[in-house]
Amino acid sequence: MKLLIVVHHRFELWNVPAWFGSRLAEEFPQLQVVQRNSYHGVEEHLRDAEILFTISLRPEQFAVTRNLRWIHAPTAAVHQLLFPELVRSDVVVTNSVEVHGPVVAEHVIALIFALAKKIPQAVLLQHDRVWGQEAIWNDGPRPREIAGATLGLIGVGSIGRRVAQMASALGMRVIAVREHVEKGTPEGVKAVFPPSALDDLLQQSDYVVMAAPLVDATTGLINATRLALMKRDAFLINVGRGPQVDDAALAEALRARQIAGAALDVFAREPLPQDSPLWQVENLLITPHTAGLTEKLWHRHYELFSDNLRRYLCGQPLRFQVHKQMGY
Predict the structure, then answer these.
(1) Global pTM?
(2) What CATH class does 2-98+294-313 carry?
(3) Residue 264 DSSP SS3
(4) What parts of the chain have a pLDDT lower than 50?
(5) For residue 62, what is the DSSP state?
(6) How many Å apart are CA 170 and CA 211, to the nearest integer?
(7) How do residues 173-206 score in pLDDT, each as one tens digit?
(8) Are 146 and 116 in contact (CB under 8 A)?
């Protein structure tokens, strides 16, 4: 039985470390473990691989597989894998939402504090050697307490659930929109609404956090019309997927002070082009897709994947299976 690990990314942290495959080969001697850091010539291994660990697979590559039964993605998003041929197949797809959820949730809380306490403005003033106490108080929205504020969650998956727990522990009132209301109310959430009630959530929220998967229904979800529904002193935070927010509409809403500010960690194009108008928006905090960065990343990946690998070899159901038709 062959396990093929193939990941190539321009950012070093996203590439699988050498110890990962070696440790798997040692722990699971019944497997032939092949690890590659390039897609060049990978077809010869795809032909007889039964398990594939990757972030990318093209339809023509999938077409050469003969024994493939399981694809695991070391990412939360899997839309890049869900082309029609794979969706129609019996191949199981799993993802790594539980690896990234806790870390991204911490980042969300950090962004909430940064926006509430006007930390970006303080950093700019420090850079210019300005004692900006009066400026921080008088220019734009004033520093505020987050206890008692309403946080509106769009998506209550791995990230959203953790955000709800942390935010409620800080005294925030958390409300959420989720696709399947019948799944109940997660810990820390006061009320859950169906997608049809998204406008109501936007009108109530002091902080709106995007943490939903990228599917047709969430693409372009936050547009000019929806931004107009938000409170003038509210903030938008996106750690979901870039295409879920209309960048041009957001930039316009921020410049017009239609909402107080925003923080974005994900973008429709990454790296964000130097000519993007978002760079020049004063009340926008940009983090360059760093919400999931942690030195513990690959150790967490190993724990999750090796557990699922044991399940697979024993014929047990895999955890974190993706509903291929739904896209997450």
Answers:
(1) 0.94
(2) alpha beta
(3) strand
(4) none
(5) H
(6) 19
(7) 999 999 889 989 999 999 999 999 999 999 999 9
(8) yes
Query: In the structure encoding, which two tokens stand for residue 290, read together?
Result: 């760093």
Q: Is 54 helix (H, G, I), strand (E, B) or coil?
A: strand
Q: How far apart are CA 123 and CA 137, in angstroms?
A: 15
Print the SS3 string covering 202-246: HHHCCEEEECCCCCCCCCCCECHHHHCCCCCCCEEEECCCHHHEC
**Residue among 43, 44, 187, 270 flagged as catalytic:** 270
Q: Which residues belong to CATH 3.40.50.720 in the chain?
A: 2-98+294-313, 100-286
241 in active site = yes
100-286 maps to which CATH number?
A: 3.40.50.720
Q: How far is CA 77 from the centre of its chain?
A: 7
**301 labelled catalytic:** no
pLDDT per residue over 65-110, tens digit each? 999 999 999 999 899 999 999 999 999 999 999 999 999 999 999 9
Specify which residues 70 forms β-bridges with.
Answer: 51, 92
- Token pair, residue 195, equals 């997608």
70 phi and psi angles, rounded to 5 deg: -150, 130
Nearest to 168 by CA among 182, 151, 188: 188
Provide the pLDDT for residue 111: 98
Record the tokens describing residue 212, joined without a space.
């939903």
The C-alpha angle with vertex 150 and arms to 243 and 245, in degrees rounded to 5, equals 10
**Is 1 within 8 Å of 50 (Cβ atoms)?**
yes
Q: What is the pLDDT of residue 189?
A: 98
Q: Which of 36, 289, 299, 300 is catalytic?
A: 289
Give yes or no for a cis peptide into 271 (omega within 30° of 0). Answer: yes
- Catalytic site includes residue 319: no
- The catalytically annotated residue of 100, 161, 178, 241 is 241
